[in-house]
Task: structure prediction
Amino acid sequence: MHFLQQHGYRVIPVNPQITGEHVHGEYVWRELAQIGEPIDLVDIFRRPQAAGEAVDEAIAAGAKAVWMQLGVINEEAAARAEAAGLKVVMDRCPKIEIARMRLPKVES
Result:
């Protein structure tokens, strides 16, 4: 999260176990539906078998894309997301990909 913030991205944490706390200056929400603003990308840090639930929440929240972290592979969830019009990245890490592609920081 901090790495993405350092590169100019706003990251809104969602974690029912620590709802109401703050992480790197951002309030932690219980679920995506509570955020109340457009969601570009849902970065999924869940076991592969639990990723489907996060994908379904992303679809319902109107997210534009889902990103499943390294080791998170769920073909059924990816197919549902793509069928709903979301872009899908699976089994990758944004930190590694940003460094690999040497993307510039986003201007605020």
Remarks:
- Helices lie at 2-6, 51-61, 75-83, 94-101.
- The mean pLDDT is 92.
- Residues 84 and 97 are 25 Å apart (CA to CA).
- The domain at 2-101 is CATH 3.40.50.720 (Rossmann fold).
